[in-house]
Amino acid sequence: MDTSVKEGTKNPDASTIAELRKSVSAIGDELSAVVDRRSRALKEGTQAGANSLRRTIRRQPVVAIGVATLAGALLALLVVPRGSRGRAASRWDGWVPHVSRAELYEVADSLQRSVARAANAAPFASSFERLVDSLTKIEPKESLSEMIQKAGSWLQRMRSPTT
Q1: Phi/psi-derived region of residue 98, left when phi > 0, alpha when psi is between -120 and 50, beta in every other case
Q2: How far apart are CA 122 and CA 131, in angstroms?
Q3: pTM exceeds 0.70, yes or no
Q4: What does the angle CA 128 – CA 130 – CA 132 come to, to the nearest 5 degrees?
Q5: Distance separating alpha carbons of residues 124 and 102, to the nearest angstrom
Q6: Which of 159, 76, 61, 71 is nearest to 119 (CA)?
Q7: What is the mean pLDDT of residues 42-51?
Q8: The dihedral of CA 17, 23, 25, 27: what is its sign?
Q9: Roughly what angle, to the nearest 10 degrees, separates helices 101-120 and 61-79?
């Protein structure tokens, strides 16, 4: 028996292991808290970005569609194989349309011009607001009486014999 260990005390290895377990558990708890805080911050940031993007799309839907279409055209430019390398015939050749790179550039150029025109045009929302504003300024009595007079004159012309 080892004389350096006194009777009635715990095994030093067991206490060391218990302390190590406690410290590993504390480190794990701290790491979990840090990861949780960072994931919450990332989630809040992405939600704020998504909300901002939604507001922008709602304000200018034509521009958003143009940008999405342009991004799709650029993706197609990256995906379509380049050059006239000979390749083995595939069973998909009958289903997939043959699009040249020049045609894709033409589409991208056309989309870019359309987006530029849409960006310089008056937004749909402001045009709609002007329409609603002009409709609310109409005086019902005056316009209704004018409409009745106009309809009456048309009916009189239809009834009167033509000479």
Answers
A1: beta
A2: 13
A3: no
A4: 70
A5: 33
A6: 61
A7: 88
A8: negative
A9: 160
